[in-house]
Amino acid sequence: MALELGKIGIWRHWHQLDADLAREVERLGYGAIWIGGSPDGRLDIVDELLDATERITIATGIVNMWKDDAATVGASFHRIEARHPGRFLLGVGIGHPEATQEYQKPYDKIVDYLDGLDEAGVPVAARALAALGPKVLKLSAERTAGAHPYLTTPAHTREAREILGEGVLLAPEQKIVLETDPGAARAIGRPAVQHPYLGLVNYRTNLLRHGFTEADLDDGGSDALIDALALHGDIDSIARGIQAHLDAGADHVCVQALGDDPLPAYRAVSEALLS
């Protein structure tokens, strides 16, 4: 892989990110910051985070293909790359059918968008693709540096690695709640899983494909589902859950700490896995 991501990064919605958090995450030894929530195609937030830091890679997780065209995003990539060469990974994805009335033939849209990034001169090695199912996972290996799956388990990571083959980036997201009381932890984790993901067909289909049932996905999600998708417990338990993705074939895990203040969890993960 051309970009250096390290084995652990953080995932955070774009409006929850700022220069101070970026500097602290870099100090803690994380390799990447993944910007979630479909940031605007100008990607000014990427400039802000790169300007505030010295070495950490900034990635988008993801730019939504329906929101901003490939030419616009390609121009943003070149602006960022010129100022901070080798520190930006452009993650792109199709989103989900419920998000837009224009959502049609998603696979064709992905291919057309990647063609547009080619025309805009965005290098294959500097872009990644949101991917869950086998067909898009294969496409991510053929047309990008690799895959950024969201809301998955180590079982999916293992299957994804088999599909991608070796030498292709696999960077799944994993939610965590640093809380030892199961009820309190689920009260934090369940809303982050339920809304909107358990109402979206692509995520439901993927979870059903990996051992969960319709009953697990309904009524806010079963405890077993929430415990798998939003790891909770002490830091040793959480570290084992993150490590399970790496053992299953992930190159890099994007850790999303849930709760009002993510820093205690990110500091604990850093001490457990990065020190």
Automatic annotation (TrEMBL):
SUPFAM superfamilies: Bacterial luciferase-like (SSF51679). The lineage of its organism: Bacteria, Bacillati, Actinomycetota, Actinomycetes, Pseudonocardiales. Pfam families: Bac_luciferase. This is F420-dependent oxidoreductase. Residues 20-115 form the Luciferase-like domain. It comes from Amycolatopsis viridis.
